[in-house]
Amino acid sequence: MRLFVGIPLAEAVVEELSKVSLRFRAKDDGLRWSARESWHITLQFLGNTGQEQYECVVARLRELRFQSVPVRLEGLGFFDRAGIFFAGVGVSPELTALQQRVTVATSHCGFVPEDRPYHPHITLARSKGKDGKHSLRRLEARIHGQPNLGRFTAQEFVLYESVTRPGGSEYSICERFPL
């Protein structure tokens, strides 16, 4: 199993992001647009996980107690090297604390936290093919101003399984953990 821990989005936020995607999506734009069902805020990517580690992660995350987390979406942006178009998520003390608590919990199961600073975001599209960087630059040139993407209060976080398909990854929920 290929797993990660994340926060599902509120329906109102999904609707706003859908409008943004529809506004900027173009036929043959050289981008692979993420399905709205796949939108989430990653807390920790775990990767390939065996059954024993899975059971450990679930048990550790069930022990975690944390308050609901206010989430504020920020502007649109790009990770040029990774070829990603995203909606930014504000780094609040509550979100950072939850992310750290999740990584501490999973460390007891053999997972190592990333060295990079936490940069929460929602992936809207990825570049594809040889023309990927140019596709992102063309998209960036079309964005004038930043839309109001909204905010919500996260009431849960989720353990997802990621399955790679020819059209991109599909995510299914393995476990839910209330906040």
Overall mean pLDDT score?
93
Total count of domains: 1
| The CATH architecture | Alpha-Beta Complex
What would you give as the CATH superfamily? Cyclic phosphodiesterase
| Rg over C-alpha atoms, rounded to the nearest angstrom | 17 Å
> Which runs of at least 5 residues are low in confidence (pLDDT < 50)?
none
CATH class: Alpha Beta
Structure commentary:
- The chain starts with a strand and ends with a strand.
- The chain has a 5-stranded antiparallel beta sheet with strand order 2-6-5-4-7. It has a 4-stranded antiparallel beta sheet with strand order 3-1-8-9.
- The longest helix has 15 residues.
- Strand 8 and strand 9 form a beta hairpin.
- With about 180 residues, the chain is of the alpha+beta class.
- It has a single domain, classed as Cyclic Phosphodiesterase, Chain: A (Alpha-Beta Complex).
Features:
179 residues; alpha+beta; Cyclic Phosphodiesterase, Chain: A; five-stranded antiparallel beta sheet; 4 helices; 9 strands; 30% helix
Put the structure in a nutshell.
With 179 residues, the protein is of the alpha+beta class. It has four helices and nine strands, in the order βαββαββαβαβββ.
Question: What is this structure's SSE topology?
Answer:
Blueprint: E1 2-8, H1 11-24, E2 31-33, E3 40-48, H2 51-63, E4 69-79, E5 84-89, H3 93-107, E6 121-127, H4 132-142, E7 151-154, E8 156-165, E9 168-178
